[in-house]
Amino acid sequence: MQIAVVGAHLAGMPLHYQLTDRGCHFIKACKTASSYRLYALANTNPSKPGLVRVSEAGVAIDLEVYEMPIIEVGSFLNLIGHPLGLGSVELDDGAWVKGFICEPQAIISGVDISQFVGWRSYVRGLG
Description:
The chain is built from three helices and eight strands, in the order βαββββαβββα. It is mainly beta. Strands 2-5-1-7-6 form a five-stranded mixed β-sheet, with no helix packed on it. It is globular. 32% of the residues are buried.
C-alpha cells in the first residue's frame, strides 16, 4: 500500500524508523496537488506538521511516497496519534494515495507554514 508522508516520517526525520522497521520502500519524492495547507502543530513531540486540504489558497506541499507491506499497516496505524490520521491525499500528477492528514480543529493552535512548501524546509529555517 502506498503511503505519503509529509513530516516526522520523512527520510532523516525522527519517526522515519517507523517506516523502515516495517519494510517500507521509497517510491518517490513529489508534491501534493495545489490544494493543501501545512501547519506546524502545537504540543507534539517530536514536532509534527498537519496537512489540510483547502478549497482556496492551496499550495503544493513536498512529500515522500513509500510502499508499505499491507500486513504492516495495522501496526503503523496504531502509532498515529490525534490529531493526525491516514486519509486520501491528491498528488501533483492527479493520483490519489493514502497519506497523513490532520483534523481541521488542530490547526487553530498551529502555525501556517505553507510558505515553506514542506516540513523539511520549515525545519531547516528554524535552525
